[in-house]
Amino acid sequence: MLCKWLLYCSRGHGRPFLISDQLVQESEGEIRANQRVTITELHHIIPEVSETTIHEAVTEKLGYRKLCAGCVPKILTDNHKKKLIAYRFVRREHQSFLRKIHGTTSSQFADS
């Protein structure tokens, strides 16, 4: 049965199951245009390719992963790193401020 299916697909019927350079380029172009695009939406844009093949192209070939419902590179930018450091500083100072005033932390406020 599998041989018949492979023969059927190799003759141009059905969906291609190999990741081509064109698929990778087209997927990357759509992701760069809209970082919140989903695999299902990419499948609607590129209907001749299965969702599984698109998912493999996006995750394995392009190295993207899902983050807050958007595909982004796995590397943080300098701007992201600065925001993370600032957030941690503000959070630490907030905890310190609460301890000075009330002798407690914000988590203890939430419990009461």
Radius of gyration: 23 Å
Order of SSEs: HHHHEEHH
Large-scale geometry? rod-shaped
Distance separating the two termini: 65 Å
Q: Indicate the proportion of strand residues.
A: 5-15%
Largest sheet: 2 strands, antiparallel
**Structural class assignment:** mainly alpha
Topology, number of strands? 2
SS field, number of helical segments? 6
Strand order, main sheet: write it out. 1-2
Low-confidence stretches: none
Quaternary class: single chain
Helix content: 55-70%
Average pLDDT figure? 75
Count of spatially separate domains: 2
Give a description of the structure.
By secondary structure, this protein is mostly helical. It folds into two domains: 2-73, no CATH class; 78-111. It is 63% helix and 7% strand. It is built from six helices and two strands, in the order ααααββαα. It has helices at 2-10, 21-33, 39-45, 51-61, 78-102, 106-111; strands spanning 64-67, 70-73. A two-stranded antiparallel sheet has the order 1-2. Helix 2 (21-33) packs across helix 4. The longest helix has 25 residues, at 78-102. The chain is rod-shaped, with a radius of gyration of 23 Å. It starts with a helix and ends with a helix.
In a few lines, what is going on in this structure?
The protein has 112 residues and is mainly alpha-helical. The protein has 6 helices and 2 strands, in the order ααααββαα.
List the helices and strands and how they pair.
Elements: H1 2-10, H2 21-33, H3 39-45, H4 51-61, E1 64-67, E2 70-73, H5 78-102, H6 106-111
Antiparallel strand pairs: 1-2
